[in-house]
Amino acid sequence: MFANLRGQWRQSRFARLLFTLLLSLSILSGPIAPAFAQPSMAPRAAMPDEQVSPEFRGVLSQYGRFVQHDRFGEVWVPTVTPEGWHPYAPCHWVKTKKYGWYYDDKTPWGQIVHHYGRWFYDQQIGWAWDPGSAFSPGWVVWRTSPEWTGWAPMPPDQAFANMSTDAFNNSEQWIFVETAKFATGCDAKVAPKQQVPVLLRTTKYITALQIVDGIAVIVLPGYIIGPWIDIAIGFYPWPAWYFVDIIFNFNFVWQNTLIFNVNVACTP
Asked: φ, ψ for residue 211 (rounded to 5)?
């Protein structure tokens, strides 16, 4: 099914261009427009596409190593993480007033790799980070139910070329915790790997998005609660064409074609 959907989207160039045009007009002609958030101790600047800025490289080199990957080129592998570590561990999710659920990792390297670029799992080297320039509160996809909440790192763009349902829906990709304990952060018990296939069948993808200051923010159901934080984030808004690509990537993962639930929520 994934292969068929990808073929449909890649062939629908006119539809993509039309959607980009309509999105650009809605953003640029309205009374509200994307704006830069005030800088803070959160990630401060975007990186060149598929390259690591000298500032970020200097930080990441202290906590991991850069290696060449056959498929993704230069990637970064952490060396300071414990055995069994997973990107976007449950400890750091907070709900912000403006940007929804934000991964508030305080480590110098975590502030970079959990908001720029994407993660993928490699059987040889484990979890590796593929550099990217676009900011997100957290590059993950979500599945939830009133009983369980789960998330998985969104793959790099290059991964969509050969992605399959089986490859993405496996125990290495997903973290699930009980929804009632999601707010407890590090104290939330992660479901064992053997339970993940069952949870993937009993939860549903979250497909509701908002456009906040020019980026897509996933809106989780109201029954998911957690710690609140008011944070100022510095980033560059996405261009309209990039937003469209991300929407199609999300839709590709969700296996829903041409179904969008997008609200514009830019601030003055």
From this structure: -95, 115
